[in-house]
Write a structure and sequence with these properties.
Leucine-rich Repeat Variant, 237 residues, 2 domains, mainly alpha
């Protein structure tokens, strides 16, 4: 085991908090592995070791990330998300192969998915928007987390009004997905897009509400005025 990884795991074990351990699992439907550490503490650990590794070659950092991911511990996945985003200035187009592999192979819960995709994948797409079509391809995956990733990778760009056409296309591709984690993911994406494009998202919801699962619909309209929410939620069939 790499000494950095060994030291990280030692710090994680000694930072475990009994109250967090007792409540951690309730945030997940699936069984997860965890030390039971508050997020600010994990952030401090990630930053502490970033100082040690940031001058390494990117492929060496990626190797450390992969070793952390293989443990399947939530807190170690969080450290990967933190480190991967700190590499944003060093992203290259070919890194998409690595990021796709990580999502498909190691991400097994919503926290790992969102932590990685909101920031690393979001920043990657903003740097290389020609790869937007990759996200659309992910919507057809048999892996629920790849499908959720297709949506949540655009959360931050959508919040700032970017890529509306792709946001709506991804929502179309996921529209009737039966997985609640995917429904929540694309509903959240529509919600964020509505910050800058309320009319367009509302029109989209009204056009598709007969097919859209109620979970996705509720997420999509969360930021809208009460009158628009009422129209969207009204059953007219």
């Amino acid at each position: 085991m790499d000494p950095v990884i060994a030291n990280i795991r030692k710090d994680l074990r000694t930072s475990a908090d009994p109250a967090t351990q007792a409540s951690f699992q309730r945030f997940f439907k699936e069984e997860v592995k965890y030390y039971g550490i508050k997020v600010p503490t994990v952030v401090k650990i990630a930053k502490k070791y970033w100082v040690e590794i940031k001058f390494l070659e990117k492929k060496e950092i990626f190797s450390l990330c992969e070793e952390l991911y293989r443990s399947n511990y939530c807190e170690e996945a969080f450290i990967v998300s933190s480190w991967a985003h700190l590499l944003v200035s060093r992203y290259e187009k070919k890194d998409l192969i690595v990021f796709r592999h990580w999502i498909d192979s190691y991400i097994t819960n919503w926290a790992a998915c969102d932590g990685f995709c909101n920031h690393t994948m979001g920043s990657f797409i903003e740097k290389y928007p020609e790869h937007l079509d990759e996200l659309k391809y992910w919507t057809q995956s048999s892996n629920r987390w790849m499908r959720r990733a297709a949506a949540v990778s655009l959360i931050i760009p959508a919040k700032h009004g970017k890529y509306l056409d792709s946001v709506l296309e991804i929502a179309d591709l996921l529209l009737t997905d039966t997985d609640d984690m995917v429904q929540k993911g694309y509903g959240w994406l529509l919600k964020e897009a509505s910050r800058k494009h309320q009319a367009e998202v509302f029109d989209y919801v009204m056009r598709n509400k007969k097919l859209m699962p109620r979970t996705a619909l509720r997420y999509a309209i969360e930021l809208m005025p009460k009158d628009l929410k009422a129209k969207a939620m009204k059953r007219d069939w």
